[in-house]
Amino acid sequence: xxxxxxxxxxxxxxxxxxxxxxxxxxxxxxxxxxxxxxxxxxxxxxxxxxxxxxxxxxxxxxxxxxxxxxxxxxxxxxxxxxxxxxxxxxxxxxxxxxxxxxxxxxxxxxxxxxxxxxxxxxxxxxxxxxxxxxxxxxxxxxxxxxxxxxxxxxxxxxxxxxxxxxxxxxxxxxxxxxxxxxxxxxxxxxxxxxxxxxxxxxxxxxxxxxxxxxxxxxxxxxxxxxxxxxxxxxxxxxxxxxxxxxxxxxxxxxxxxxxxxxxxxxxxxxxxxxxxxxxxxxxxxxxxxxxxxxxxxxxxxxxxxxxxxxxxxxxxxxxxxxxxxxxxxxxxxxxxxxxxxxxxxxxxxxxxxxxxxxxxxxxxxxxxxxxxxxxxxxxxxxxxxxxxxxxxxxxxxxxxxxxxxxxxxxxxxxxxxxxxxxxxxxxxxxxxxxxxxxxxxxxxxxxxxxxxxxxxxxxxxxxxxxxx
Length: 468
Hints:
Elements: E1 9-12, H1 22-37, E2 41-46, H2 56-68, E3 78-79, H3 84-96, E4 100-103, H4 107-119, E5 143-146, E6 153-158, E7 162-167, E8 175-177, H5 185-195, E9 200-204, H6 208-221, E10 227-231, E11 234-235, H7 251-256, H8 262-270, H9 284-290, E12 301-302, H10 305-318, H11 321-332, H12 339-349, H13 356-363, H14 376-381, H15 384-398, H16 405-419, H17 423-435, H18 443-450, H19 452-462
Parallel strand pairs: 1-2, 2-3, 9-10, 11-12
Antiparallel strand pairs: 4-5, 5-8, 6-7
Subcellular location: Cytoplasm
Organism: Sphingomonas telluris
Keywords: Aminoacyl-tRNA synthetase, ATP-binding, Cytoplasm, Ligase, Nucleotide-binding, Protein biosynthesis
């Protein structure tokens, strides 16, 4: 697994206990971009050591989300549980070197120490009587603990946070190997990063405290230290910790429920905490060229769904019509034969949509069966006077020779002038009759998209005959 030290190697290491959440997706993106910018490697490691909570569904969701966002990893994905024997081997090497010890403390003894610390209102630190003992306890169960340094301080020159120091007296003798022989996360992550040749550890700043403990293992083993970059977490629009009400959803929900395009979500995540001047629309190629971890800000970013929607609207307008038709056809239940009219309508439809759900909703009028079911707002527009107006519109449109937008516009304007009405007053009931709604693409485009026969039939369904 080892890699050349001259090559930049980053990794994304999610725990498969749930979906790929939005913060994890940004971490993956930053790691991917940093590796691609430097011509290095980007690795994916599934940290599945929690066998109770790790699920195949969660692993599949992570892999699916990464692929959808276009974050391809180099080689196959790694699974942390495959390397337990190696983790245990390192724990025993630390034991042999005097940097770890067997601790035989019972749960009762630990609980008593914890209660004493609480009573004395001081932070709880393990004080194991076995730290400097070489006494063999036979078959008595034990854990292997790191013999953390007690003097001086540990300093990390973090690429985002700057110089961060912790007094070593604050570091605890944490467990490396449990009594059943299984490794802890803290040990496994360090061993895997070393063995995989990871040069840059880019992750959320909720891991900053872990870095000091993990660095103690790295130094005890005499390994080269990775460059750390701890990125501030994403907060809600109100500055509070990100929650579901702010948009702390899985990447799959942004795709399937909210109707976002992957390039829009990637662009948005890139700008959450990183910037390149005033550029807002950044292509993937530009992102690879421009990205550097030194331009990640220290302050937490704020999730703004409205901004993401606007960005998504831009990417929808820029997107290929056939691709968009393929994406929304399942939402409309369309057959392959029905895609062509949808593709033809797409230039008009996509001009108004901020997400794929809006796009599908805007296209629905093309495929509804007659007679249309009008919504409440549309029904309110189709009153006797407007039904009589629809009769006049029908008669005028029936005489149109070329069913194209300029000819249709001329015909509707003729009706408006003849009736002494503004164009909007004519368009409103006409839109209701043609779409069953009060919002749609431009009314002349609607007529052109529906075609002569369908348009006239829909108008006829709602109009009042002169002799009625």
